[in-house]
Amino acid sequence: MMPSPQTNRREFLTRDATAAAVATLTAVVGAAEPLKVRVGVIGCGSVSHQYLPHLAKCPYVELVSTCDIRPERAKAQAERFGIPHHYPHVKQMLAGAAFDLLVNLTDMQEHEHLNRQAIEAGKHVWSEKPMANSLQAGQELVAAARKKGVRIWGAPAMVVSPQFAFMAKVVASGKLGKLAAAHAEYGHTGPDWAAFFYEKGGGSLPDLAVYNLTTLTGVLGPAKAVTAMTSVLTPTRKIRGKGEIKVVAEDNAMVLMDHSNGLLSHVQSGFNYFNPHGHDGSKEQRHTISIYGTSGYLGLVGYDWDPHGVDLATRSEPVLKRHATDKGNFVWQMGASLAAESLATGKDLLITPEHALHVLEIIQATNESQATGRRVPLRSTFKWPVIA
């Protein structure tokens, strides 16, 4: 049934947005004026300095409020971006100025309970990684969101990059022959601005490996089992404003995945990797992801969150040739803006909560494999191939 001209904003944003609904809403509000999704941002630390400028420029976003347990940070970001409301606690934020989409940029250990509160309050959610602290909790969040008629998405967003699209299409075309193996790595010497990276629930896996795990499973397909090892290489860290802390979460990880049909992949990550290029992806020119088949090779140039191109060689064209050198408008912090666009227009996203939960289960299985010394089977999956 087509919605009536009286369809209100809330009803539109909480239903499954179909093309018919979008067309009707456009006729009501005028084609020149896109629907703006009201956004509240919680967590005004370092990551917000990347997200907020992107959200502020998004034509589908109206920034309504900020929130942070350090009220001065919420106030500063609100003033910087002309946001009318700021709050010191999530309960005040949810009870305050009305908004549609919560963008959760808090410490990773806090994501799950904040996402749950937002969903219970009828808000859509874009969550930085990970969206929950376990697969079961994440599945409960997705089920709760569906019951409430809202959406939840989890970072990261690399599946929307032109470089990911090129790799996915080459693999799907069969140019590489039978896929055999893949390797990915991402690391640096570790953050010194917050302790949560090294506390229980932190680590290089949910902070760094999550990117490579998302890319490899997105290109190669869901993993069926994990065998892994992790360690704490640096037992103490100096954190700005806190001094020396004990490291609890792993800071060094090796993850081996079985994708079935003989295809194996490997991800390594850690907070102990010296790199002459530093953490600035713009200077990274190595292949940080390599995919091998019986008839071809793919190498991603730069990091998957800041890709510069993809090198391809095949039996018929054995000299490496660079492709997909234009990033277009892709930046790693664009996921929340894309979520707002999806809510406003009904446009589908390649980013799905099921994919984020599959990666979360791989991280969970990695820790289990380290603790038990066993190969750990996986239960979750997601729609694949991930191709627009």
Write a concise keyword list for the protein shown above.
388 residues, alpha/beta, Rossmann fold, 2 domains, 9-stranded mixed β-sheet, 6-stranded parallel β-sheet, 11 helices, globular
Concise description?
This protein is an alpha/beta fold. Helix content is 33%, strand content 24%. Strand 5, helix 7 (135-148) and strand 6 form a beta-alpha-beta unit.
Layout of strands and helices, then pairs:
Elements lengths: L8 H6 L4 H11 L7 E6 L5 H10 L3 E7 L3 H10 L4 E3 L2 H6 L5 E4 L6 H10 L3 E4 L7 H14 L3 E3 L7 H12 L5 E9 L16 H17 L4 E7 L4 E4 L3 E4 L5 E7 L5 E7 L16 E7 L2 E8 L2 E9 L6 E3 L11 H11 L7 H20 L3 E2 L11
Parallel strand pairs: 1-2, 1-4, 2-3, 4-5, 5-6, 7-12
Antiparallel strand pairs: 7-13, 8-11, 8-17, 9-10, 11-12, 13-14, 14-15, 15-16
Rg from alpha-carbon coordinates: 21 Å
Low-confidence stretches: 1-7, 15-30
CATH class of the largest domain: Alpha Beta
Order of helices and strands: HHEHEHEHEHEHEHEHEEEEEEEEEHHE
Q: Give the quaternary arrangement of the chains.
A: single chain
Q: Percentage of helical residues?
A: 25-40%
What would CATH call the homologous superfamily of the largest domain?
Dihydrodipicolinate Reductase, domain 2
Main β-sheet, spatial strand arrangement = 16-15-14-13-7-12-11-8-17
Per CATH, the architecture of the largest domain is: 2-Layer Sandwich
Q: Please outline the major beta sheet.
A: 9 strands, mixed
* Derived structural class: alpha/beta
Q: How is this structure best described in words?
A:
This protein is an alpha/beta fold and 388 residues long. It has two domains: 121 residues, 3-Layer(aba) Sandwich (Rossmann fold), CATH 3.40.50; 200 residues, Dihydrodipicolinate Reductase, domain 2. Helices cover 33% and strands 24% of the residues. It has a nine-stranded mixed sheet with strand order 16-15-14-13-7-12-11-8-17. A six-stranded parallel sheet has the order 3-2-1-4-5-6, sandwiched between helices. The chain has a two-stranded antiparallel ribbon with strand order 9-10. It is globular.
